Here is the input.
Amino acid sequence: MQLCVIGAGYVGLVTAACFAEMGNRVICVERDTARLAQLRGGRSPIYEPGLESLLAQHQASGLLSFSASLRGAVLHADVVFVAVGTPQQEDGSADLRHVLEAADELGRVLRKQCIVVNKSTVPVGSAERVEQRIRSALQQRSLNFSVPVLSNPEFLKEGSALEDFTRPDRVIIGSDCPHAGDVLRRLYAPFVRNHERILLMPRREAEFSKYAANAFLATKISFINEMASLCARLGVDIEHVRRGIGSDRRIGTHFIYAGCGYGGSCFPKDVRALIRSAEQLGIEPGVLRAVEARNALQKTLLFQALRGHFSGLLQGRVVTLWGLAFKPGTDDLREAPSLVLLDALLLAGCQVRAYDPVANAGVARRYPREVASGQLQLCESALAAVEGSEALVLVTEWKQFRQPDFAQVRQLMRRPLLLDGRNLYDPAELRALGFVYQGVGRAIQGHCKEEAA
Ligand code: NAD
Here is the structure.
């Protein structure tokens, strides 16, 4: 099929590359000229494992191209995917500006019938709105062919996006038009060959399913984090409890890891958008508010722990952060817990030495003054980052942080304090090496308080 994808972000690029991989001809439209130039030069503007080579492969094969012109891109398109951002507005609701702009633009340039698919995460009723916008723009041009708009929410996870797209748990197709639904089903057929995983449903239900899925996953995280706080007080290790409850198939092992909070481009904004929808509908979203509040609290815990260890005297302390991206496998910093911690440390006058395998550059762009003054040093390696440090804080659980040479780390550090924001390490092992260890929802190992220097 001939496809057009509007938006070359995390979702748009993965969608474009994976459909090209199956032999479709895809034109991806991007309006950010710097991003477009990078893509045309064979470089991916985002870090996602395997993506850059797949993009290059299909640009070379001629199946995938990038353009600034929607008019040219939709000329022969059978299906147009809208994969633009839907950030949060001030009141928490989803900002549909980019989606509606894309709809208006489609109405101005379409010359023939095609199917439009909302891949962006959008509130219930958005497909109808987009369809209406396109229809009225076409009518202004005295054109009256129909352009059905479908909802096809995306469930990929950054860090494993290609795998998630090509081997999905399910594909939700929300369509009120049987023919269009069938076209999309055929498009996805190569990804679900061994098992029927396509769920066809009306589009409002598809739109809501995406929000409900993200809200549920965020709820699991905030729930386990609240249990972790109880565990810490009770002297109970949440890691035993996690295994204890995760073995129950009704609960499951996923998304019950205690940690320093969830971030990213989806959970925080989608939970807030759902809260706002509930408010507008006169429903008190008690559960969702609690999920959000717990997560905000969770993002402050590592800083509170550091303050505790240093008896509130943080000015001039050298603190190391391992991991800055909101999760491993991505360079995405949107709503990352690391940023809340960084802000607090810098405000408290700490010297921060940080290392992330791919997100250093993004952090440097966010903190230009602190980098220039030397208060924030972005280091070349995990070991370089701990030199002279008084506290090591593990924020993002990249694989390369799983088994570092802790004897060497211990030697390089000025004080052996380790705060494990992801419960990655064995407390007893670290204690044996002379570290003071504190995880999330587990008892502190070693001497709790460092003497104030
Ligand atoms: P993004 O911000 O990374 O990318 C959006 C891209 O669209 C940008 O490059 C922007 O320049 C471009 N764009 C905006 N309007 C345009 C237009 N009119 N024409 C051409 N280009 C345009 O966004 P993302 O993270 O890919 O998310 C896209 C949507 O998918 C959001 O609704 C998000 O909630 C949802 N989603 C994201 C993920 C994820 O992991 N990032 C997963 C599932 C769903």
